[in-house]
Amino acid sequence: MTGVHHHVHDPIARAVIESAADAIVAVDQRHRVTVWNPAAERMFGWSAKEMVGRVPPIVPDELKAEHNAVQERLLTRRPGEGENGQISIATRRFHQDGRLIDVRIDTSLLKDPTGAPLGWVGVYHPVEDDEIVQHHMAERARLVRRLNDIVADLNAELDLAVVLDRITTALIELTGADAGGFVRIEGDRLRLVSMTGLPEHMRGTTADLRSSLVGELLRSGKTVKLATGERRLGDLIWSELPGLHTIALGLSYLQNKPYGALYALFSGRKVGHMELELLELLAGHAGVAVGNAVAYAEVVRQRAHERAVIDSSADGIAVLDHDLVVRQWNPAAHTLTGIPPEDALGRPLPFDMPALGEMLTFRLESGIWLNVLAAEIEETGELVLDFRDVSEAKALEEAKDLFLATTSHELRTPITVVQGFASTLVNRWDKLADADRRAAVATIAERAQSLGRLVEHLLLGSRAGADELPVTIETFDLRRVLEGVVAGFRSLSPLHQVELEIAADLPFARGDAMATDIVLGQLLENAFKYSPDGGTVRVRARPEGSDLVVTVADEGVGIAPGDHERIFERFVQGEAGDRRRFGGIGLGLYIVKRLTEAQGGTISAHSAKANRDAFHTMSRKVGTSVTTISTRGEPEPRPGAVTTSDPASGTKGTCMRLVLRRAG
To answer: At what angle do helices 273-312 and 131-156 cross, to 10 degrees?
Structure first.
């Protein structure tokens, strides 16, 4: 009984296969026999019962690469590619008794009605035992063994350029061609990327794909091609080879897509079927080798990309092996911990590690707060630790706690006073003199105004933090705003005198008049607040290039060194001197800065003496006319900018420098 009855259902086809003189063997995609006709039983010695369902043990080890290459090439061929869609090779196969049989095999791809591959079918023809055939088979076996060695060598190499150079060198050796090259398909162009036996200046040369032999081969649906004749060879990019008469080329595929073509150039010997067959096999293996090299290059690229991401990360990143020893330590890890890679690599983690998926927050000896998160790389079992500097967040958290405590205190005092005086008025109205009642109501009104200012600061601070401060950029009269703000502070304190000095040529400003009014009011309020013993508050305005500069200087307690920038942060007040005893929630200057920047301006804090010296130097150099307005008198124009009353030499004081944009 043969294996035909079970797998060939058409009676005529079954009869043809069973009566065929040549051995017919079909295998599925797992290389197990599905058809083993009587001629196959006679040729190889095994019965169909022994072979069906098994991988046939007829291919010698040294010819397995050839066998596999033929099957792979058939899988990559498109419909109609090649002669009748088959590949013919002269080779050898084992008999059951161990003898090697010389055969020629015509192999085709088996497909179902939808075109899906089912396996392969081979028709085996016996070869007559004469000297020519024996010599041919021996040479064939030698070339196949050499092909195996070359393929093993190619698969061991992972550098793409080296792989391509070895392919062209092997092509010359196997086919006896006079020169060879490999062209890569790049869109609608071809590029010569590897060559042997051609002038070096041709490397990198490009040609049009459509008009080339590769384009012609792609359109034909075949995988190999021979080209002869001057007309077809004259325009080729490698036509510099003297005496070129024949070109053989085979396509190489990468992931079932044409990647390039392997060229064998002949100027001496003639090309036979074996050379073309070897070219086809080598081109097939070239696709596999190129695929390996491309995949390796992609892995290297991905690793380099990952390395670049890790190195450029602002977070500290450490990779630990199974023994919890540090294997990677990025630059940010060095910056955050102060530990250089040479002291971290190969050693345990220099700080406690959190449990997987949990966050650990702790403080380093340097004062930096870190959030540390650990995760496992499942594929390798390694651990990745990400640690981030959260010192600012910690500081903000502490500042918020201080803000809540300070705000509670600031609210409690006026509310307590209002409640006390209101209760007194309710319970003792008839017993109080009119003057006492008025005084109580005045106190309630003053404390209510204090509460209103506090709420306004809270609201503006919230909007500033959310970048929602409403400003309208337009041209406005800065002189008028300055005069209005200064006039409003005249009656606030009998201990303070406000001097306003405005350059006579002060131009209009570009910004928001209302926002500028708020800014100047806050600066004057701070000047009064932090000079409790009174003194002169000087407000000056002058043009300076394309800007307008306004300074507000007091004779108060001043700002400690190092706090000149911090005082503009939220919830921050000067820590040194007597500034803490003045209360407040630390939002005023933060609002000033945000309102100023929203108009395109800047605000900065300086010592009053340094600013006075700079202002006087600038004024004497420019010689501008300045208008001086005192809280006790009317405007009086005079030359120069030197004030009539300088503070005592021992006064510290603070100067706020506001810079706005000039209109026009």
So the answer is: 10
The answer to whether 284 and 167 are in contact (CB under 8 A) is: no
Q: Is residue 104 a contact partner of residue 139, using CB atoms and an 8 Å limit?
A: no
Q: How much is the pLDDT for 456?
A: 67
The two counts, helices (H) then strands (E), for the chain are 18, 25
Which residue is listed with tokens 């705000």?
A: 407
Three-class SS of residue 89?
Answer: strand
Per-residue confidence (pLDDT) for residue 641, from 0 to 100: 33
Q: Which helix (H) or strand (E) holds 311?
A: helix 273-312
What gap in Å lies between CA 239 and CA 160, rounded to an integer? 26
pLDDT for residue 41? 95
What six digits make up the tokens of 580? 């803490």
DSSP-derived letter for residue 16 is: H
Beta carbons within 8 Å of 401's beta carbon, 6+ residues apart: none
Count of Cβ atoms closer than 10 Å to residue 581 Cβ: 8
Six-digit token pair at 218?
């792609």
Backbone angles phi, psi at 549, to 5 degrees: -115, 125
**Minimal CA–CA distance to 414: which of 587, 585, 590, 591?**
585
Residue 518 confidence (pLDDT): 81
The structure tokens listed for 190 are 């071809």
pLDDT block averages, 10 residues each, the chain of length 664: 56 85 93 93 94 94 78 67 70 90 89 88 80 60 69 71 82 83 89 86 87 87 74 53 80 85 82 71 78 77 81 87 89 90 90 85 85 86 88 75 60 70 85 85 77 65 57 90 83 85 94 86 87 91 94 90 81 49 65 86 84 42 41 38 36 86 88
User: Would you say the C-alpha torsion 106, 112, 116, 119 has a positive or negative sign?
Assistant: negative
Which residues does 196 contact at the CB level (< 8 Å), separation at least 6?
165, 168, 169, 171, 172, 179, 180, 181
> For the chain, what's the residue count?
664
Q: Is the pTM of this model over 0.70?
A: no
Collapsing DSSP to helix, strand or coil, 168 comes out as helix
**How far apart, in whole angstroms, are the C-alpha atoms of residue 402 and residue 571?**
8
The helix (run of H) or strand (run of E) holding residue 617 is helix 608-622
Q: Write the burial class of residue 70 (CB in 10 Å: 0-12 exposed, 13-18 middle, 19+ buried).
A: buried
d(C-alpha 213, C-alpha 412), whole Å: 92
574 CB contacts (<8 Å, ≥6 apart)? 559, 560, 563, 567, 580
Instruction: State how far the Cα of 592 lies from the Cα of 584, in Å rounded to an integer.
Output: 15
Give the whole-angstrom CA distance, residue 238 versus residue 178: 12
